[in-house]
Design a protein that fits this description.
The protein has 27 helices and 18 strands. The protein has about 600 residues and is of the alpha/beta class. Among the domains are: about 130 residues, Orthogonal Bundle (Fumarase C, Chain B, domain 1); about 220 residues, 3-Layer(aba) Sandwich (Rossmann fold), CATH 3.40.50.300. A seven-stranded parallel β-sheet has the order 3-4-2-5-10-1-11, with helices on both faces. A seven-stranded parallel β-sheet has the order 14-15-13-16-17-12-18, sandwiched between helices. Strands 6-9-8-7 form a four-stranded antiparallel β-sheet. It starts with a helix and ends with a helix.
């Protein structure tokens, strides 16, 4: 293959498909969709294809923690080419405000409000006006924090200065998709002059969350308390009446034993705000103004600048813009002592279509984009071309177990016992293993049996729990990698997608079922919305089948990262052999169909074959 400037930038020896992918990306005059598994080297490939001094690269990632990866690869490209491309990972104020850290403020809204209010007298911001930085090397988030802490300058606003110098900036999706947040970047780097890369792009299906918000019974209660303290009697009376409606909904749902129901937000608006001679928006504006006063006073008292009155007013003001929009639902969720009212935005194509048009060219990459035409349609992508590439991965064995399935609403005792017997055989393998279940519910059903087996075999298990906080999750993962054992987690959790397990850190994966969304009210609303958009069959396939198989594929991809790795995959659900599902599984799998009666023996045999 002929060497080009783009291919010459690649910092590593070429593996299968990498040079071809670089040429494909660099030569295409359309938006590009790249499906390639973990281990292909997507980050270095895409950077090599796009890097130049004329058009900066904006690299969008799902979470801030993932923003360092392209910067690390940029450092390697600079070493190879002897160039001085500059890039950095951009973080929000919650991570970057040194003054907020000193106040102990941690939530995003409080830090943003604090920064806005305190900025004029902030010593870190003032020092920035005397500070000069001439970036000569790519900078990670931690390196920017270290530089700014030593110089006592504001890390967040230093980032804004660094944007003028950047050939690459890596940041979270919200800085591209959210109109208010995107202004922070495009006011300095016009998007039309940029290449956009969207990493792990399959996550774009939940992009509507940027418009979602929720209030609870406590929001009403605390707002009334704030209003009474300030003797805002008229507003307190209105919010009290709205609270009574929320309490009535909660009582009715408990009586009917409903967990969720859709509600008409108009019942709050009509009853609460249609009093007096003022318009609805005037009442809401007054309520938010009171909330703003509360926030300002709390900040002066060195407390977190929160206000329930402000939140309540903002929720209803914003919701007015979405009333009657197809794809936006208002959902009440009843807990034993609480009611949650949520604005839930299911749209993706409608929200994203205009976003992609702003950029010179977009590149979307993931190991789970296929079928690419379905991906492109659901994110509103126009004028695109896509390719699927394979990576040079190590040897693997894949067994699909016939006569085993989590099909149905509940896992029967008989089926649970069958899974337990098979998992016991799997746990006999002397290696680090993962048992990924279709849901927390199924994991909970099987966990006592897994614990019992682990105790009998003297094997340590590490369990991802629902609602697990970040620090606890990181510690559990570090312990598993260091000490080894059995990782037990759902395919809908953080470890099945966001964690890396190179080498011997993970050598066997057992999938318990297919991680379809539980057929809850939300699932039904989501499927119905997609059917209205794309038709009956296609809508069901896009909204229900593809997301489930993507989760399964992500979980499988944890164990096979390079050509040196070896891994055994046990797909514990006979439905994986059906063409509808099988074609969405990773291309590196070569499945062998095994009857349940023979599966225990075959699992151990397959492992021995891998070891030889």
């Amino acid at each position: 293959m002929v060497t080009t400037r783009a291919t010459a930038r690649f910092p590593y020896p070429y593996r299968e498909g990498q040079e071809e992918a670089i040429k494909f990306i660099s030569e295409s005059d359309k938006n590009v969709c790249l499906d390639a598994p973990t281990g292909f080297g997507k980050t270095a490939v895409i950077l090599s294809a796009l890097l130049n001094k004329s058009y900066p690269i904006i690299w969008a990632v799902r979470t801030g923690n993932e923003a360092d990866r392209p910067v690390e690869e940029l450092k390697e490209i600079n070493k190879k080419t002897k160039k001085k491309f500059f890039g950095f990972s951009f973080r929000g104020k919650r991570d970057m405000c040194l003054a907020a850290r000193q106040r102990g403020l941690t939530d995003t809204d409080s830090v943003a409000y604090f920064c806005k209010s305190f900025k004029a007298k902030c010593p870190y911001f003032e020092n920035l006006s005397y500070y000069r930085i001439n970036p000569t090397r790519p900078l990670l988030y931690s390196e920017i924090i270290e530089i700014c802490s030593e110089a006592e300058v504001c890390p967040y606003y230093l980032q804004r200065e660094l944007l003028y110098h950047a050939d690459l900036v890596a940041l979270s999706y919200n800085y591209i998709i959210h109109p208010g947040m995107s202004w922070v970047i495009r006011s300095i780097i016009p998007f039309k002059a940029c290449f956009l890369v969207v990493d792990e792009a399959h996550n774009l299906r939940v992009v509507g969350n940027i418009n979602s918000d929720q209030i609870t019974l406590s929001t009403f209660k605390n707002a009334i308390k704030e209003l009474n303290l300030l003797e805002e009697n008229e507003l307190a009376e209105i919010v009290t009446e709205m609270q009574e409606i929320a309490l009535k909904i909660h009582k009715n749902m408990q009586k009917a034993k409903e967990e969720e129901r859709t509600i008409d937000l108009g019942i709050f608006i009509e009853s609460g705000f249609n009093k007096g001679n003022k318009e609805l928006r005037e009442y809401l504006a007054e309520l938010r103004k009171v909330g703003e006063f509360v926030r300002r006073r709390r900040l002066e008292e060195e407390k977190a600048p929160r206000s329930s009155a402000y939140h309540l007013a903002s929720f209803f003001l914003d919701s007015l813009e979405f009333l009657g929009k197809d794809g936006v639902a208002f959902i009440a969720t009843a807990e034993p002592k609480n009611l949650i009212i949520e604005r839930w935005d299911m749209r993706s194509a409608e929200i994203l279509r205009d976003v992609w048009r702003q950029f010179r060219k977009c590149v979307f990459c993931s190991g789970t984009l296929k079928p690419i035409n379905a991906f492109a349609e659901t994110i509103g992508l126009e004028e695109w071309e896509g390719r699927v590439f394979r990576a040079e991965l190590g040897e693997s064995k894949c067994l699909i177990i016939r006569g085993l399935s989590t099909r149905g609403e509940e896992l029967s005792k008989e089926e649970a016992e069958k899974y337990a017997r098979l998992i016991e055989s799997f746990m006999e393998i002397d290696a680090n293993l993962a048992i990924f279940s279709a849901s927390y519910r199924i994991q909970t059903d099987l966990l006592p049996k897994i614990r019992k087996t682990a105790k009998k075999m003297s094997r340590k298990i590490y369990v991802e729990k629902q609602g697990m906080q970040g620090d606890a999750a990181r510690k559990l993962l570090d312990d598993f990698k260091r000490d080894g054992g059995i990782l037990v987690a759902p395919m809908t959790g953080r470890f099945a997608e966001g964690a890396d397990f190179p080498g011997k850190e993970l050598e066997g994966v057992f999938l318990v079922g297919i991680p379809f969304d539980r057929m809850s009210l939300r699932s039904k609303l989501y499927i119905d919305y997609y059917r209205r958009l794309y038709g009956e069959e296609k809508g069901w396939y896009y909204s229900y089948v593809i997301p489930a198989l993507h989760r399964a594929s992500q979980a499988l991809g944890r164990a096979l990262r390079s050509k040196e790795d070896k891994a055994l995959f046990v797909l514990g659900d006979e439905r994986y052999r059906e063409k509808l599902y099988a074609r969405l599984l990773p291309s590196f799998l070569r499945p062998e169909i095994v009857d349940f009666s023979d599966a225990r023996r075959r699992i151990l045999e397959a492992w021995e074959e891998l070891k030889d």
